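[job 0412] stage=fold_complex status=start
inputs:
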Amino acid sequence: METMRVIKVKQSVLANNDARADALRKKLKEKGVFLVNVMSSPGSGKTTLLVDLINRLKDKLKIGVIEADMDATVDAATVESKTGVKTIQLHTSGECHLDAKMVDEGMDFLGDDGLDLVFLENIGNLVCPAEFDTGATLKFVILSIPEGDDKPLKYPLMFRKGDIFVFTKMDAKIVFDFDVNKAEKSILKLNPDAKFFPVSVKANQGVDVLADYLVDAVKKYQGK
Amino acid sequence: METMRVIKVKQSVLANNDARADALRKKLKEKGVFLVNVMSSPGSGKTTLLVDLINRLKDKLKIGVIEADMDATVDAATVESKTGVKTIQLHTSGECHLDAKMVDEGMDFLGDDGLDLVFLENIGNLVCPAEFDTGATLKFVILSIPEGDDKPLKYPLMFRKGDIFVFTKMDAKIVFDFDVNKAEKSILKLNPDAKFFPVSVKANQGVDVLADYLVDAVKKYQGK
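[job 0412] stage=fold_complex status=done
writing structure:
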């Protein structure tokens, strides 16, 4: 087997984005708004998890949601109707990721005053979203059991960049050979500070633990 | 719910790519090499399907494989060891898609003389790969049952661009609410010429039908 590397340079785009992301993170910190960037493959169960999580958190924290899609509005409509929290839809016109400028504009559009926690549902994609710092306080990476435990080997940047790794659809383990220990070990090699939350929304397992973790993280961030 | 559109223009990049893709398609046609661009989400079962499909086809057609990954070589090693056909690995250095230039260089690297059929396993991604014509003769889009039947609504460009839609992991229908008719109807709305192949490699179902279709398509293309 032979290997060939294709080289493309996009350093300057990324450097500009990093500066803008840092500025946004500083602004959000001053306002006490905790921003969670939620990334995963298409179909990993991001929206289902968010709806469940928000319904557990909305009495404790004031929450907003920014849904990103290339063109659809299906997720934003679902989240807003099932949780009642304010949700806006960003359309990226074909771009496969969110960058800090889009998120900054989205936060203005959402209106961030008084919000404790904003979930940013990124485009379903394990590649591009990992490259662009959105200014988020915390990065969720969602990996569903049917996708397989080899994904950290294949999309290393995503697994290096994430903070919180949520394994979804744990109830599907009965039909898929997914080795949770193997996945965790692969991720820890890339990212020694990774934290893991195995959940099943369908079986009502583990989302409570993740919700408690977030409440604590937001309080700490806000200095409460 | 409110909606905001982010505008970015990348027309010139795409126009250059289209010209290069057309030139590659013409060159491949002259050589009788049928190039299949295989696209899907991460974890949809692309590699598993290709291994099974190639083992059914390799006595009838001379096959090569171009595996694209951002950095890993795990798929190329798997395909080569399990099928014995010549496989090269393209590393895209963080790019989330293949373009016609990369594929043209990859074909030179693979050495296309005498090949009937080349599978190009694109980066696992439902967004960017749809935007870039690779010069392929035929485009496979793979959608696995656990991803959900709403994916055509959320990634419309991919489902508009594909020719052949393969529903994988059909054996997992016992634990997932995936409505095959609904998915097919959504895709046909975007793409009236779409063809569907439901398969399960694990249960040995449907891959034979897809293999027969490909043998016929390659013969027709080569004028045999």
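[job 0412] summary: Chain B is about 40% helix and 20% strand.
[job 0412] exit 0
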